[in-house]
Amino acid sequence: MTEDNRTSNQPRSGSVTFTGNDSGSSKDLVSIRDSQTLSAHDYVASYSGNGTTEATVTLYDEPEGTAAGDAEDSFETIQLSPGDTLVATEIARSDVSDDVVAVVSGNDAEVSVVFGGHIITG
User: Fold this and answer.
1) Which of 57, 60, 28, 26 is closest to 44 using CA atoms?
2) How much is the pTM?
3) 57-66 residue pLDDT tens
């Protein structure tokens, strides 16, 4: 695994919760200023045990307010089964230059996502 040695004293985090009626929708997870770049660091994604179908959460590097159907620049896809809680640390796969937008699909119960990173420029 590649280690990200860049440092910043400006952590950024956010959380969103999607209900079972939110399948196919987007929510803004973390917003940054236009001149900033965010290094993705970690996330926790959970899906209620009341769910009956597989759920997918996709994280996008898109401007806040981007609709699910307009999101194109994905950097992380998370597959969840009912009752799952997934924790990923040091994901540093790519840097985010817009904002972090989460899109959920396939869920029929509550899905929650907590995301964190650090500002590395701007």
Assistant:
1) 57
2) 0.90
3) 999 999 999 9
